[in-house]
Design brief:
This protein is an alpha+beta fold and 410 residues long. Helices cover 35% and strands 12% of the residues. It folds into two domains: 9-109 and 312-356, Phosphorylase Kinase, domain 1 (2-Layer Sandwich); 113-307, Orthogonal Bundle (Transferase(Phosphotransferase), domain 1), CATH 1.10.510.10. The strands form three sheets. The protein has a six-stranded antiparallel β-sheet. It has a two-stranded antiparallel sheet with strand order 6-9. The longest helix is centred in the last third of the chain and has 23 residues, at 382-404.
Length: 410
């Protein structure tokens, strides 16, 4: 039976007295639009009770249903409720009202990487390396938990005020399963061949996308371009693109281009990252990188965004343009008897509340070896740490020699 009432999911764990205020859109002061997506807007908002700034993703239920994306928005909310990591955009609240779904996320004022690429086009090698290292740490976290992002691109990488990159938009992310050949969503220009061809795929698809971005950093454009998904697919299948020695721009190293060439291999079993993030970190381009210092934000970014909101005001403030036919279609969706029941599983979430009740079941963090130890633990384990660092250096050196003997540069 239909209902005009939204299921109040905030009562699921509220048998005891609740010291936390219920959060809704009225709990926030709307400051400005900072982005737009397929289902609505992204706002910069102020939470009135603590004066903290967040980014609020506002998604129209009618648009979601019209595009048959109910599962993807529910999946994104479910994944984000279990994540907590310094190199992704974390969710703090989720809720809904009659018309919209809401995700309240970390706000980073640096803007997305596409914004900066459009103004610079090219990055220096040091800048590109730093950004890619940040992305690798984010991918290590999700891949260690069998999550494939599946839409890695500059638009989904956001800079903080220190120039660190954070991964966002898990709308088409999936927990890996064997028969996933039907999962073909993503952005064609960054999509791996196995996804394009509707084949089973693994975390290696994210490393192909990382390679496409690396190629874009070096050359100023993607390796496979086209006006449609079909055209891009045909180009990928027709030729393996590689950066040649005589094509390397001034200021870029052989190791950087070798790294990119290994990532954009069309066959996943030949692709760097197919066996996981550790082999990516061991590539000689990253020799000398302290992943521990990077994880703990001790490294200075070679690119610092300007100290104000880095968003395109023309794009963000453009008026909504919806045709009459589309509006009529949305209205017919709203009149459906099951309209509200579709999103009953889009549960209320308050990270602060869940943490206080010890009900936040976070997925494991593979970066625990990078985290700070308390002082007495560091003293007790000093010898072990020194030995481990020595072993790690030997491993990297071995990998460096292995790669150097067989560079993917011709």
């Amino acid at each position: 039976m239909g209902s005009n009432q939204i299921k109040d999911s905030s009562n699921n764990n509220n048998n005891n007295n609740n010291i936390f205020d219920k959060v809704s859109k009225h709990s926030f002061e709307y400051i400005q639009i900072i982005g737009r997506g397929g289902f609505g807007k992204v706002w910069k908002v102020l939470l009135k009770k603590n004066k903290k700034i967040y980014a609020m993703k506002e998604m129209s239920k009618a648009k979601i249903i019209d595009r048959r994306s109910e599962r993807s928005v529910k999946s994104e909310r479910e994944l984000l409720s279990k994540m907590d990591h310094s190199f992704i955009i974390n969710m703090h609240y989720s809720f809904q009202d009659l018309d919209n779904l809401y995700l309240v996320m970390d706000y980073l004022e640096g803007g997305d990487l596409r914004y900066h690429l459009c103004r610079r086009r090219y990055l220096t090698e040091n800048q590109a390396k730093f950004f890619i290292c940040c992305v690798i740490l984010a991918l290590e976290y999700i891949h260690s938990n069998n999550i494939i992002h599946r839409d890695l691109k500059p638009e989904n990488l956001v800079l903080d005020d220190e120039g660190y990159i954070h991964l966002t938009d898990f709308g088409v992310a999936k927990i890996w399963r064997y028969n996933n050949f039907k999962d073909t969503s993503g952005t064609p220009g960054y999509m791996a061949p196995e996804v394009m061809c509707a084949q089973n795929h693994t975390i290696a698809v994210d490393y192909f996308a990382l390679g496409v971005m690396g190629y874009e950093f070096i050359k100023g454009h993607r390796p496979y371009q086209g006006k449609s998904r079909k055209e891009i697919k045909e180009k990928i299948l027709s030729k393996q693109i590689q950066i040649r020695k005589n094509d390397i721009p001034e200021g870029w190293s052989l190791e950087a281009c070798d790294f990119v060439n290994r990532l954009i291999q069309r066959k996943p079993h030949h692709r760097l990252g197919n066996r996981g993030p550790k082999e990516v970190q061991m590539h000689p381009w990253f020799k000398g990188i302290s992943w521990k210092d990077l994880y703990n934000h001790r490294e200075m970014s070679p690119y610092i965004p300007k100290k104000k909101d880095n968003f395109d005001e023309k794009y963000c403030n453009q008026p909504d343009k919806t045709g009459i036919e589309t509006e009529e279609r949305y209205n017919s969706i709203i009149r459906r008897k099951d309209y509200h029941e579709i999103f009953n599983e889009y549960l209320y979430f308050n990270r602060e509340e869940y943490k206080a009740r010890n009900e936040l079941f976070l997925i494991k963090n593979p970066h625990e070896q990078y985290q700070e130890n308390i002082e007495d633990e560091e003293n007790d384990d000093k010898n072990d740490i020194d030995n481990n660092e020595s072993n790690n250096n030997e491993t990297v050196e071995t990998a460096y020699n292995k790669y150097s003997d067989d560079l993917f540069i011709f």
